[in-house]
Amino acid sequence: MLPIVSAVLFLYLMTNLAVETWIFFAVWLVIGIAIYFAYGQRHSRLNEKFAKARASVDGPGTANAV
């Protein structure tokens, strides 16, 4: 029963927020998602495996060529 009441109260509070609050939330959400995926792409173990495989296929002299 408590989770249902909590969810209803949460939705009530969300619907009473100002439009500016939702706009700021959306902007910060987009910025956060962009940082998250950019960091993940650069630090991905799978990306490192692909880079090593690409270097072994292309040869050592063409590793920086795109």
Structural description of this entry:
It is a single chain. The chain is mainly α and 66 residues long. The protein has a domain of 42 residues. It is 79% helix and 0% strand. The chain is built from three helices and no strands. The radius of gyration is 22 Å and the shape is elongated. The mean pLDDT is 86.
In short:
This protein has a domain at 18-59.
N-C termini distance: 58 Å
Strand composition percent: under 5%
Low-confidence stretches: none
**Tertiary shape:** elongated
Q: Characterize the biggest β-sheet.
A: none
Whole-angstrom Rg? 22 Å
Count the helices. How many?
Answer: 3
Order of helices and strands: HHH
Count every beta strand, where a strand is a DSSP E run of 2 or more residues: 0
Helix share bin: over 70%
